[in-house]
Task: inverse folding
């Protein structure tokens, strides 16, 4: 069933913050992966002003309950409220962990259709971020994440690595992958790689 979005309507969503970009001296563009609407882009007006209600709430990989009103003219919607549910400061404890989280986000952005619900990928990213907050990133973890993405896309095959299949379908992979794998080459592969695996 296709969702019908009404311009100007206020919507609530469970979301993970993917990207933050400066828009003006006072405002930011914030990209989210949401459970209800997939990837959306929002304008956080006044977020860079002192005392903004968004202060301390718009950092990478945060999970939050957000509300936004849909634009009538574009796919850049107006962010109204943010209630952080998970800060995940542990992801930024070292370069390797931050790089792994960033690669997972880039891969989701590559394969996800904008403003289309993708509950499986949302749950996958939540699990990965929750693990990375305290767990060590490894090459095996990256391979498992890529396998789950390929399975979601319906392209997984036992005779080819998942990243090759994603590369073939989307004519490339995030540029951050190669450097990340180099960084993880010496990671301890004896640790558990994914919750429930």
Result:
């Amino acid at each position: 069933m296709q969702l019908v979005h009404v311009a100007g309507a206020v919507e609530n969503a469970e979301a993970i913050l993917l990207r933050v970009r400066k828009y003006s001296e006072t405002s930011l563009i914030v990209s989210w992966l949401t459970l209800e609407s997939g990837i959306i882009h929002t304008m956080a007006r006044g977020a860079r002003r002192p005392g903004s209600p968004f202060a301390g709430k718009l950092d990478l990989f945060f999970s939050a309950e957000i509300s936004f009103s849909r634009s009538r003219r574009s796919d850049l919607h107006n962010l109204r409220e943010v209630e952080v549910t998970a800060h995940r400061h542990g992801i930024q404890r070292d370069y390797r962990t931050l790089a792994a989280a960033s690669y997972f986000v880039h891969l989701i952005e590559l394969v996800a259709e904008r403003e289309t619900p993708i509950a499986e990928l949302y749950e996958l990213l939540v699990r990965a971020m929750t693990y990375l907050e305290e767990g060590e990133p490894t090459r095996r973890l990256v391979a498992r994440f890529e396998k789950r993405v390929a399975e979601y896309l319906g392209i997984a095959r036992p005779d080819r690595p998942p990243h090759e299949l994603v590369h073939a379908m989307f004519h490339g992979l995030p540029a951050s992958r190669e450097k990340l794998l180099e960084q993880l080459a010496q990671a301890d592969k004896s640790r558990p790689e994914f919750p429930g695996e």
